[in-house]
Structures are given as C-alpha cells and as structure tokens.
Amino acid sequence: MSDSQNKVLILFAHPSQNRSEINVPLFNASKGFNHVTTVDLYAEYPSFRIDIDKEQQRLRDHDVIVFMFPLYWYSTPSLLKEWQDLVLEYGFAYGSEGKALVGKKFLCALTAGGSESSYRKEGFNHFTIRQLLQPLEQMAELTGMEFLAPFALFGAGTATEEQRVVKHLENWRRVLVAIAENKLDYDVASKLSKLNHSLDLVITE
Questions:
Q1: Whole-structure pTM over 0.70, yes or no?
Q2: How far is C-alpha 112 from the geometric centre of its chain's CA atoms?
Q3: Mind listing the pLDDT tens digit for each residue in 81-96?
Q4: How far is CA 61 from CA 37, 64, 133, in A?
Q5: 2: Cβ–Cβ under 8 A, 6 or more apart, which residues?
Q6: Low-confidence ranges of the chain (pLDDT < 70)
Q7: Is 97 exposed, middle or buried (0-12, 13-18, 19+ CB in 10 A)?
C-alpha cells in the first residue's frame, strides 16, 4: 500500500433534497476532509447543461470516484445518468485512446427504500442490490476502474425513527478516512455484496 493519500470525488445526485432524510446528511458528512471533493450535481447543473471538460478534469484529478444517490426505480436519478452519458465519452473513458480512468476505484453510496431482505432472489425485488448495480459495475469494468461493493442503507424511509442514521454517518466517515489513508482492502471490498456490513473485514489498521 502507498503512503500517499487518495483523492476522493463524490458526485451527489438527489433531485428532491427537501425530502431527503439520509442522502443530504450523508453528503454533508462527506465535507470537511482535505482529500474529499464534494459535488452536488443538481445544484451545479439545474438545467442539465453539464460542463463535460470540467467534469472530465475532475475525474483525472481524483483516485476514487463515488456516486452518491437514492435508488430510483432500480437505477440512478436522471441527472447522474445524463452525467454518465455525456462525460464518459469515447476517447476519454473508453476506446483505444480512452484511458483516463484506468486504475481508479469506483463505488456507490446509496439508499434504498425497501428492507434489506427485499433485495434478494426470494424477496420483493428479486435481485440483490449488487445485482441491480451491474450496469454501473460494467461501466467501471469498461473504463478500467475497480468496482467496490456498495455502501448501502436500506429501509431509508424509517431510518430516522429507528435511529439508524447516526451510525450510518459514522461508518461512512470511517470509510472515507480508510480510503484516504490506503487502509481499505480493495481486493476484499471488490468481492463483497455490501461494503458497510463488513467494515472490520475491509479496513486494515
């Protein structure tokens, strides 16, 4: 492991932040770290007119890319998909000349409204959360990034009343510090179904 700090880019996408009980606090908890750049995509691009050159430079400047979002209909909010479509273009992110993202790490920090038990073959949603993220995992594969297991909170609608938010935020800050200090076992993290259920396993002291 390297002694140098990793630079983390968090791309936050939530189109209805006044209704957010988890994502906005999670995004705010990501601020204040020297190694972390936080970007609120809906605040920066309210008209969806994405500055492609600016976003591509942000990607070049960071080692770890995080998509932070609520799971909407088994996918990302629309602006984050627009960001992917425009920014990750041929010749930059993929293709014979598109090597800008090779070697970087990629993970999703997301919330889901359903219970964790509903995200399995026998459950209401029929697939695990990692299976539902396979388009993003393949995006990482195509662009040469290493896909890490998602940091996921389930039952988002009841997390506040069940007093699960504070611990979730603490765990996320722990992940950010571990990433910066190269104390995350990426080989293990890439194989898990969910990252935050196994922090003692993936964070090395």
A1: yes
A2: 13
A3: 999 999 999 999 999 8
A4: 10, 10, 25
A5: 182
A6: 1-3, 115, 123, 125
A7: exposed
**Cα–Cα–Cα angle for 177, 20, 104, rounded to 5 degrees:** 35
- Spatial distance between the Cα atoms of 92 and 104, rounded to a whole number of angstroms: 14
In one-letter notation, the amino acid at residue 69 is: F
pLDDT, tens digit, 9 for 90 and up, residues 120-147 = 788 686 878 899 899 999 999 999 999 9
